[in-house]
Amino acid sequence: MQGSIDIDALFAALRKGDRAALGRAITLVESTRIQDRETAQELIERCLLHAGNSFRLGITGIPGVGKSTLIDVLGMAMIEAGHRVAVLAVDPSSSRSSGSILGDKTRMERLSVQDAAFIRPSPTGGVLGGVARCTRETIILCEAAGYDRLLIETVGVGQSELEVDRMTDLNLLLMLAGAGDELQGIKRGIMESADLIALTKAEGDNMPRAEAARRDLSNAVMYLPVRDSGRHPEVLLTSAIHGTGIQELLGLLEDLHATDMKSGRIAERRRAQALFWMQHAVTTGMQERMRTDAAINAALPALEAAVKSGTKSPFKAAQELLSLFLDR
Ligand SMILES: Nc1nc2c(ncn2[C@@H]2O[C@H](COP(=O)(O)OP(=O)(O)OP(=O)(O)O)[C@@H](O)[C@H]2O)c(=O)[nH]1
Ligand SMILES: [Mg+2]
Fold first, then answer.
1. Which of 59, 62, 68, 175 to mutate to test the pocket of ligand 1 (most atoms within 8 A of CB)?
2. Residue nearest (by alpha carbon) to ligand 1 atom 29
């Protein structure tokens, strides 16, 4: 990022839906430089007044389940219905290689050439305040730029679903029939953040297995705790390659979203999410300050040695560290 950014010009261009400006704004939000953080914060504050008017949909599932391919057809259907679609990829571990980012673009080959679509891969490398903060701010920027359908793709590795569940209005979980992940999903709690489940690649020879998996899963979800919506997830069959089940999926998603908008559930959910992220930012901010505090770092080796040798209790040592930080 340049040293001085014309924030008025950037904001104005972004509000007009200028994609290059949106790209620059996201790069600013992803920057690890302290001075960029302040500019980014100011931009976000301005954008907040124009944000919120969208459907934030999380799309999750194990690598290779077909998330990007489904997003391509789902996104196209949304554009045909008159929407503007932004696709964000989230990988909280930032472990994704540049190879799979390229893979994403090629998997979304129709969507990626649409004027009404914007695709942004996950930030790579470290980001101040974490990937979650970045994604939340990127959501705000996309909304202020006029995107009203946000598709947030995340790799299903347990932790990431929970983070994404705190950013989205609804979550779509993709699963493979016969991959043995029906039960794994329940065990790992992944299904607990799903509002809707689609069994992907339901086509051809795979159909009987997909039908059977649909029955099993439909029964299994009844044993999950209900979502904050009071619903259990429905299970659908889709094939992104054959284009089957896509309209049904889209129809159901839009219905659920409209229902939840009307009932106030989404407003309530977003309020709770905003409070969660405020608390989260305070906690992580405090931890970061303590981790880099000179007095704490000076006192730490002796206290650690005392705790290890058993001459001081861990709680007493913690108390002393906190006092060093707070009582001055
Ligand atoms: N037969 C069939 N193959 C599909 C379908 N959807 C996706 N695939 C294939 O499955 C593979 C993985 O698809 P992706 O869309 O990249 O999967 P993903 O979940 O985004 O994968 P990651 O981004 O790596 O987590 C690709 O080879 C796709 O062509 C489908 O409906 N039918
Ligand atoms: Mg993908």
1. 68
2. 69
